[in-house]
Fold:
Amino acid sequence: MLHIQSFTFNPFSENTYVVYNENKDAFVIDPGNFSDEETAVLEKFIKDKQLKVQNILLTHAHIDHVLGLQKAFDQYKVPVLMHELDQEILDRNPMDANRFGFFFKPFEGEIIYLQEDEIIKLGDDEFKIIHVPGHSPGSIAFYNGAQKFMISGDVLFEGSIGRTDLYKGNHEQLLEHITTKLFILHEDTQVFNGHGNPTTIGFEKNYSPFFK
Structure:
């Protein structure tokens, strides 16, 4: 049985997730903790639950989703898993931070690239990698079919979709991949996204104004 804990961090109100199992193995997904106080909240939860962080996962590498990446890597010393096509996005973050008026060091740490349809495991639980480009070239969702949920980043929101006006965004591509890769999943599938409330595949498929 997997458990999902969400935290809303940083000035962008980004959702960071900790997914963990009964054996206390855990993934930290999209560490957006920015302030020392936010970092303390995340680390306290992991410590209090006695979790063993196995990997840090990135749905994509936009700056609001990686503000705590270096801190998480330094604290838990585990590889970062992401799609190769977002490496350029990650590398651009110091420049993007400068545009927002703050300093951000280039990430230094081990990165392992994930591919479409690859399976990663947390103990006995499996996550399938679904590549859903459009918001960013390497946007991926981590899909658990057994419990019917995914951590989707900024691909699909409650009543909305991810921005496509950012660097290397593509509106038509995003709509196409949501339709062909996500909307084929069971309608009860929960979508834990990068900002705002969770939703379901069925709700977005039937009611989102972007797919009428």
In short: The longest strand covers residues 3-9. The chain has a mean pLDDT of 97. The domain at 3-211 is CATH 3.60.15.10 (Metallo-beta-lactamase; Chain A).
